[in-house]
Amino acid sequence: MNNPPDKRHRIISLTAFVVLALGGGMAIGFTSPADAWYAALSKPSFNPPNWIFPPVWTGLYVMIGIAGWIVWDRERRSAAMAVWWLQLCLNFAWSPLFFSAHRIDLALAVILALLVAICAFIALTARRLPVAALLFSPYGLWILFASLLNASIASLNPLP
């Protein structure tokens, strides 16, 4: 027994959104890893151990993908969908700026813009698509923490 084409299409599109978010995040992580430069930076006392980042990001990227798909499935040409794409671009830009370009200052600007985009997405989806907003809430909290961490690292390691 085959699924109806609409249901099959929805499963494929959901899978594509999760693969895009998770696969893109993993690719960025592999191409912009924490290195000796990062290890040598002064960090605040609340800096988490490196091993915590992969499992946290895996869960977040899955939720980001599902939230994006929910909006795409129901409101493809909405402001919420545009903001979802914006936040994904900002998210994917942060690691290369921070870890590869060693631009803590520019990475801080990007992560703060990302935080604004996440809050905008939550606000845009809270009433019409509350599950999407709920899925973005842990992401928003993590990026708030990451912004504080980025800002602390910037203040402890001023530009020459």
UniProtKB/TrEMBL annotation:
Its main location: membrane. It is a multi-pass membrane protein. GO terms for cellular component: membrane. This is Tryptophan-rich sensory protein. The chain crosses the membrane at residues 51-72, 79-100, 106-124, 131-153. PANTHER family: PERIPHERAL-TYPE BENZODIAZEPINE RECEPTOR, TRANSLOCATOR PROTEIN. Belongs to the TspO/BZRP family. CDD domains: TSPO_MBR (cd15904). GO terms for biological process: tetrapyrrole metabolic process. Keywords: Membrane, Transmembrane, Transmembrane helix. It comes from Reyranella soli. It is found in: Membrane. InterPro entries: TspO/MBR-related_sf, TspO_MBR. It holds the Pfam family TspO_MBR. It comes from the Bacteria. The gene is tspO.
